[in-house]
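Dear all,

This email documents one entry for the complex benchmark we are building for the journal club exercise. For each entry we list the sequence lines for every component of the assembly. Then comes the predicted three-dimensional structure of the complex as a token string, followed by one or two observations. Please use this as the template for your own entries, and keep the labels exactly as they appear.
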Amino acid sequence: MLWTRKDLLGLEYLSAEEIGLILDTAESFKEVSSREIKKVPALRGKTAVNLFYEPSTRTRISFEVAAKRLSADVINIAAEASSVRKGETLIDTGKNIQALKADIIVVRHNCSGAANMLARSLDVSVVNAGDGWHEHPTQALLDIFTLKEKLGKIKGLNVAIVGDIAHSRVARSNVWGLTKLGAKVTLCAPEMLLPPGIEMTGAGTSSDLEEVLKNADAVNVLRMQFERDENTAFPEQLDYFKKFGITEERLARAKDNIVVMHPGPINRGIEMSSGVADGKNSVILEQVTNGIAVRMAVLFLVSQARDASRSSDA
Amino acid sequence: MSILVKNGRVVDPSAKIDAILDILIKEDKIVRLGEKIAAASDIVIDAAGKIVIPGIVDMHVHLREPGREDKETVASATAAAAKGGVTTVLAMPNTIPAMDSVENLELLKKAIQKDARINVQLCGTITKGRLGLELSDVAALKKAGACAISDDGSSVDNAELMLEALKRAGVSGVLTICHCEDKVLSGKGVVNLGFTSTRLGLRGISNASEYERVRRDIELAARAGSPVHIAHVSCRESVEIIAQAKRSGIKVTSETAPHYFSLIENEVLGYDTNMKMNPPLRSREDLLAIRRGLQDGTIDVIASDHAPHTENEKDIEFERAEFGVVGLETELAAAVTELIGEKVLDWPELVRKICLNPARILGIERGGLAVGDYADLAVISEKDSWTAAKESLISKSKNSAFLGRSLKGLVDYTVCGGKIIYQR
């Protein structure tokens, strides 16, 4: 299996084999971070630009650490989203970065499809670090990597994703990745937070957390955001915690070795109690560590594929 | 000046003609129609093997002049129309300023007089500034030349006001055209609501936001006793509601656009903003319902909803890009490819949808090829295929949903008012 894509835009677009290749590559990169000298020369001489239109600390830092451990030069740009006739367009910004001879743009944007648009317009590699409600592929990859590390496999696992599925790019990427790898995914949320047609991905849906947790091998708990510009219906915060909060009592009725994940940052006491976040089933900090290996793998693979296609064009 | 169009397959359902005939044009009228006309003429068009139809009457076109001449002008739009076989358009009134007064209509009329290469019919607004708050003076708009009113791009939310608008339009003999959209329901949606909006992570637009307003506007028209025309029908429920209204004798007509019988929501999956229009591309089921509606007469008209936008307004993030696509140069080919090619309609039926019906609905003397009719016609090579490309479009804007698509049907000649205004 050879990786041939210059970009990583979403897990919907990948085959199970391609996802497997990223995971395998990540596994071999994981060891780098435990060395005395945490660096390999795989991307020496390459420039990676983190172009972030949304505030983000952990994803941006994770990408930066990953690129640096591969010996790439890293530039961070915190950009202001611009509209028509006001400031530079996304494509113009991308073209300017490309003109600086950057090799990879890691982009985070509040508009769904922003990474797709950049990738279409540019020759540099584009890695999606989260676009609107669309996808956040590296987050899902690190979730899957962690799960595989903990439980030894993905195929056949019952994975619950709990929270605001409708507005979550993390949920979408996880659904695509996990279903392609053969896991049984159940999305658990109040009806109003399930997006239409989501069951067509192969994932099941439920509003009964107790029932879902009974069978789950793992639960991925999404961050809840109650402040939104929408006039759509939204559950009351306290009511939500009562029905969908992950607590010690609920976990006590789940499988003993259930894996509890969260993409962070956690709202303690809203989607998850402190006891669970810090408890024996939680792998939240391991997810952060694995994020580096997964992002190293992604940066390495897209960069290699771009080099290969450029040399064959020449 | 005389033109003899020889040996073409002349299709004119208003005169029940579908035969190989010659057409003799003198000045701006058709003077003879028959087999092997031997008369001398200044110009002879050899139409052997080609189809001759009345010039297309496109009752939904945004010329963008006055106000947004960077997108399109009367000159560029009517040139594009000529290339597409279109000889009459109804100019949508959402210009800057909007066509809500005689004074503003005069601005447009000046531009038409100066630059138009085809017939341009005028459409006023239903409300002042298209704000839905205060009615325009429909009698005055009519006097200044408007044959229809529409707040296209918006619906009049206030039902009482809409009822009054329909009543007054009826009294003035002006057609009311409705853009049916409940913006409370469509909200900030940008694509069809469903699995597509979920996959893309974009806000959805439900069928209900369209058909609930179709239902309301038809009910209001029935109460007012005035004719109503439903613009750009995109979904199956709207087709059903219109069919029922027609069966119960309400004076309702409707139109759809080529993208709604050619394309479905899957096209949006790559975030191509040339697939972004309002209403959005719908499901396969909706497309099939639109085709059935065209077949059974529920949908009377095909109109382009030609909506030019600059690259700056389209080549940006999907949710920020403007809604709308150009269509004057591709509507005939889309219909030939998707409707004739797939046996949804035959030629006489298609000519009804693009020539005869819109002319009748607007009450204008076009859409036929009988002796005494205006010499507006298009000569078409039905089987010639071509690929729509930015470079091949002469419209000022290139935001076509058909770019890169192989289409059948090319216009060889367009004649308008007895003059050849386009030749391939």
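Observations: Chain B is about 30% helix and 25% strand. Residues 207-224 of chain B form the longest helix (18 residues).
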